[in-house]
Amino acid sequence: MQIAVNVNGTEYSRVIEPRLLLIHFIRDDLGLTGSHWGCDTSNCGACVVWLDAQPVKSCTVLAAMADGRRVRTVEGLARGDGLDPVQQGFARCHGLQCGFCTPGMMLTARWLLDRNPDPTDAEIREAISGQTCRCTGYENIVRSVRWAARREAAAAGGADRAEAGTGGDAV
Amino acid sequence: MFRQVQVPAYVEYEKATSVDHALALLARFGPEARVLAGGHSLIPMMKLRLAQPETLIDINGLADLAHIEVADGELRIGALTRHAQLLDSAAAGQHFAILHDAERVIADPIVRLWGTVGGSLCQADPSEDLSAAFAALKATMVIQSLAGTRTVGARDFHTGPYETVVAPGELLTEIRIAITPGAGSAYEKVGRRVGDWPVGAAGAAIWLEDGGARIADAGIGLTAVGAEHFSAAQAEDFLRGAPATERSFTRAGQIAAEHCRPASDQRGPADYKRHLAGELTTRALRAALARAAGGGPAAGQEA
């Protein structure tokens, strides 16, 4: 079957088998290998991408289900030349060790902050509760998301302090 | 490149553009067709080749099956409603807090964004939480086909593990729950870890009379403990007309525990699950009473 999917703002049209999983379409057909293929059982969340405006575990949806929809992967997280504040937060706060869970964690974090710009630690933990960091770096992942939230709050407040929000979370 | 990949077997795919179109596709492709909603149960089953449908009928585009509304004294939940949508619904939480209790502990937030209420019910996993919640609420399932519409009580919906009364050519379209004054409900679940299937869980709904002193009717739903129709009929019989007291709830829990048939598995031994069925029934009744009385502690807030 033929599908047309907008991935990170680019239209892709491909002929696929209906049984093809979205994660394999993204990685193998489109060559976007930032999204990781982990447990294959919708438990670990390494494969999280956005389907339209919401994150999804892409090992558990068919590429066919993305026909006519938008997909956003980690490759589409940066804004223009600059990294997304979530990406900056993970870099600043040591939010990744091996990096395997990182793309999925960041896409979920972006979704959380879009809905809830000032989440509590409990809300951050709840948001990523379906995702596994096998390095067990959860403390720093939570810290990274919190950093991004503060950074965005500072930017939205028109603060001219470019580094606002980093202080309380300096490692 | 030569890796072991879990992939579904070859399958055909049809995208339904309306409920009528979905029903026509279901009629055309017959018993080897499966409805594809969120896919979060079906696709894992297909990867393991436990399910090998010939045709998938994708209903994700059917927005008119994704509603939550109050009409004619009922809460009506479209079958394509996502778990997250039900959890976010103020109307659902206001009238049937049990639904929010249950949704809060189903899988994880990402899975809840895509998994659907109807899909969970039709998957009919014995450990699935909403089946017991709707059994407790004595909900009604609306099933459509080209031949028309029929309704089935929640307790008659499942015919066994992974089996329902939904026949080839039919589609579950809506769940309806009557809204009655003086009602309260709650769901209590014990799992090994966050997001896991329950070791055991119980839901309770009570309807009060005599100014709240007496139980006019009660519904008890049990999950993952081998309860017939996901419910505890003998405990409900005991509660009907009984005083709304701690003693009644304790006895109802004992009766529920006596009549379920849990099986030992990797989540726990049968006697522990039986204990859970009783204790969680009592706790859910207690929380349901507090809510029916308009306040008190919410479910899940005690140890």
What does this structure look like?
- The complex is a heterodimer of chains A (171) and B (303).
- Chain A has helices spanning 22-29, 85-92, 102-115, 121-127, 138-156; strands at residues 2-7, 10-15, 48-51, 54-57, 70-72.
- Residues 162-171 of chain A have low confidence and may be disordered.
- Chain A starts with a strand and ends in a 15-residue tail after the last helix.
- Chain A has a five-stranded mixed β-sheet with strand order 2-1-5-3-4, with helices on one face.
- Chain A folds into two domains: 2-76, Beta-grasp domain (Ubiquitin-like (UB roll)), CATH 3.10.20; 85-165, [2Fe-2S]-binding domain (DNA polymerase, domain 1).
- In chain A, strand 1 (2-7) and strand 2 (10-15) form a beta hairpin.
- Chain A is globular and about 45 Å long.
- Chain A has five helices and five strands.
- Chain B has 303 residues and is an alpha+beta fold.
- Chain B folds into three domains: 12-58, Uridine Diphospho-n-acetylenolpyruvylglucosamine Reductase, domain 2, CATH 3.30.43.10; 63-178, Uridine Diphospho-n-acetylenolpyruvylglucosamine Reductase, domain 3 (2-Layer Sandwich); 183-292, CO dehydrogenase flavoprotein, C-terminal domain (Enolase-like, domain 1, 2-Layer Sandwich), CATH 3.30.390.
- Helices cover 35% and strands 25% of the residues of chain B.
- Chain B is built from twelve helices and 13 strands.
The CATH architecture name of the largest domain in chain B reads: 2-Layer Sandwich
CATH architecture of the largest domain in chain A: Orthogonal Bundle
Q: How much helix is in the residues of chain A? A: 25-40%
CATH superfamily of the largest domain in chain A: [2Fe-2S]-binding domain
Helix content percent band of chain B: 25-40%
Mean pLDDT of chain A, as a whole number?
93
| C-alpha geometry of chain A | globular
H and E order of chain B: EHEHEEEHHHHHHEEHEEEEEEHHH
The computed structural class of chain B is alpha+beta
Span of the ends, CA to CA of chain A? 50 Å
Strand order of the largest sheet of chain A: 2-1-5-3-4
Query: CATH topology of the largest domain in chain A, what is it called?
Result: DNA polymerase, domain 1
* Shape label of chain B: globular
Task: Give the oligomer, counting copies of the same chain as homo and different chains as hetero.
Answer: heterodimer
